[in-house]
Automatic annotation (TrEMBL):
<comment type="function">
    <text>Catalyzes the transfer of a formyl group from 10-formyltetrahydrofolate to 5-phospho-ribosyl-glycinamide (GAR), producing 5-phospho-ribosyl-N-formylglycinamide (FGAR) and tetrahydrofolate.</text>
</comment>
<dbReference type="GO" id="GO:0006189">
    <property type="term" value="P:'de novo' IMP biosynthetic process"/>
</dbReference>
<feature type="binding site">
    <location>
        <position position="106"/>
    </location>
    <ligand>
        <name>(6R)-10-formyltetrahydrofolate</name>
    </ligand>
</feature>
<keyword id="KW-0808">Transferase</keyword>
<dbReference type="InterPro" id="IPR001555">
    <property type="entry name" value="GART_AS"/>
</dbReference>
<feature type="binding site">
    <location>
        <position position="64"/>
    </location>
    <ligand>
        <name>(6R)-10-formyltetrahydrofolate</name>
    </ligand>
</feature>
<dbReference type="GO" id="GO:0004644">
    <property type="term" value="F:phosphoribosylglycinamide formyltransferase activity"/>
</dbReference>
<dbReference type="InterPro" id="IPR004607">
    <property type="entry name" value="GART"/>
</dbReference>
<feature type="active site" description="Proton donor">
    <location>
        <position position="108"/>
    </location>
</feature>
<dbReference type="InterPro" id="IPR036477">
    <property type="entry name" value="Formyl_transf_N_sf"/>
</dbReference>
<feature type="site" description="Raises pKa of active site His">
    <location>
        <position position="144"/>
    </location>
</feature>
<dbReference type="GO" id="GO:0005829">
    <property type="term" value="C:cytosol"/>
</dbReference>
<dbReference type="Pfam" id="PF00551">
    <property type="entry name" value="Formyl_trans_N"/>
</dbReference>
<feature type="binding site">
    <location>
        <begin position="15"/>
        <end position="17"/>
    </location>
    <ligand>
        <name>N(1)-(5-phospho-beta-D-ribosyl)glycinamide</name>
    </ligand>
</feature>
<comment type="similarity">
    <text>Belongs to the GART family.</text>
</comment>
<feature type="domain" description="Formyl transferase N-terminal">
    <location>
        <begin position="6"/>
        <end position="181"/>
    </location>
</feature>
<keyword id="KW-0658">Purine biosynthesis</keyword>
Length: 211
């Protein structure tokens, strides 16, 4: 690619992963940040960086599919090469996701395939796990079920709570997600019907240092 990778992002919360992406100064062009919450901090992060924003609320649409089509249609109009779900907290309709196969990644706070969906820190503690982590995966119609390309791991201590796990893991997410986007921007990580790294099928998730 003879130009910077065009990146759009969707986020529902404060936008700390988005801020980490911007701060990483990757060879990318951020073309849009969208949210399902007009008050999301991620929109403020984007505006401060001079990135165009769009916000829509599901309650303004007839159903989930109509909302997804509208929001993802707005994203498509920005012509991104890559869509990053950086703390986007809605389940996306399968028909909408299909159009983004190989062009969208998500960061999820668990060592997938463990603990898809919500409350991952709580579920990790309830299971008595000694290790927790975050995963970046290509987005598919299956919730948190697409091919995992990279993971970060932290130990779970006897005094850990949901809050301490979330805080410590977020630090790792802020390194992991920019590393993955950087690898896509450089062409090292690609989608060719499956995840490829340095021209070979990716057999197991990488860590940030390997990217």
């Amino acid at each position: 690619m003879d130009r910077p990778l065009r990146v759009a992002a969707l986020a529902s919360g404060r936008g700390s992963n988005l801020a980490a992406l911007i701060a990483a100064r990757l060879p990318v062009e951020f073309v849009l940040v969208g949210s399902d919450k007009p008050s999301a901090g991620a929109l403020d992060v984007a505006r401060q960086a001079g990135i165009p924003t769009v916000a829509m609320q599901a309650k303004d649409f007839a159903d989930r599919v109509a909302f997804d089509r509208a929001l993802f249609g707005a994203v498509a109009e920005a012509r991104p090469d890559l869509l990053v779900l950086a703390g986007y907290m809605r389940i996306i309709d399968a028909s909408v996701v299909a159009a983004w196969e190989g062009r969208a990644i998500n960061i999820h706070p668990s060592l997938l395939p463990k603990y898809r969906g919500m409350h991952t820190h709580r579920r990790c503690l309830e299971a008595g796990d000694t290790e927790h982590g975050a995963s970046v995966h290509f987005v598919t119609a299956e919730l948190d079920g697409g091919p995992v390309v990279a993971q970060a791991r932290i130990a779970v201590g006897p005094t850990d709570t949901e809050e301490t796990l979330a805080t410590r893991l977020l630090v790792e997410e802020h390194t992991l997600l920019p590393a993955v986007v950087g690898a896509i921007a450089s062409g090292r990580l690609q989608w060719r019907g499956l995840a490829m790294f340095d021209g070979k099928p990716l057999e197991h998730p990488l860590d940030a240092a390997s990217l």
